[in-house]
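Q: I'm writing up a methods section and want to include an example of the input and output format. Could you take the sequence below and give the corresponding predicted structure tokens, formatted cleanly so I can copy it straight into the document?
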Amino acid sequence: MKAFLNLIRWQNLLMVILTMVLMRYAVLAPVISKIGVILIKGSGEEIPMSLQFPWYDFILLVAATVFITAGGYVINDYFDIKTDLINKGKVIVGTKIPRRKAMMWHSILNVAGVAAGFYISYKAGYIWLGTMFLLVSGLLYFYSASYKRQFLIGNIIVAILTAMVPLLVVFYEWPALYKYYTINAIRLPHINFIIYWVGGFALFAFLTNLIREIIKDIEDFEGDSAYGRNTVPVVLGVLTSKIVSISLIVVTLIMLYIIWHFFVNDIITFIYLSVAIVFPLLYVIYKLVISSEKKQLHSASRIMKIVMLTGVLYSVVVKVILTWNLF
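A: Here is the clean output for your methods example:
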């Protein structure tokens, strides 16, 4: 059981669950509650909007996402046995879990994820959305088999798929809101802006994950080089890859403060960003500058993972600010 949990990266799956739950209940719910609507069969007074995508369907949405993600981790380890032996010195597939059994779990997880995805898409009235889960499942397979060996393509694919996790919550909530309030409200308020709120988290997830993927490639340079993988460090060199990572961090820092200044502009957010996100990112830059061995690069990668978590946890700050009107 422990080997299986490590194979599917249970900590990362918990991060997926946390992200989706917080996007729904700490961002979308308080944001739309600030919009007043008058229901046709109501008392004539404005009432706050509320979530309309059923909670039990939301659980299935989370489960579908987790299944597809877990299947992606399984197939990734399946194709990475040789390089992981060099880079990490140990593997799960082929030792603790037989290769055939790993492929079986990959198939089970993907079938479950795609089936759940089509079901909730059907329930939402947009069954074509289910093809998204099928495409992601296939994309993760080809990523592990081919794309991750190509220059930058694999890094961008993983970053995009990471950014899709918070966006999935909007993809299924928005149609439910539109359908319910079109029928039951006197006037449908503009709700497109909810995409921008969650889109900010998605953009942050994309950038931070892209940075972490490049750092991980620098850390795995030896194994990737030995087996002819065209990762960023192999093609451009370790020094240039560090410069690219640092540049992306600087871009992320600038964008954080630009978004804060023009769209949020409150002291609580400023303090949170500075302490929980900006300072750790600056420390990552320091680690990259001084790094000369795997241990320091691994430390930088772990800090990036923490930054991704604190970025998601900013949603709790959003809920506090909106609930208590702390603008």
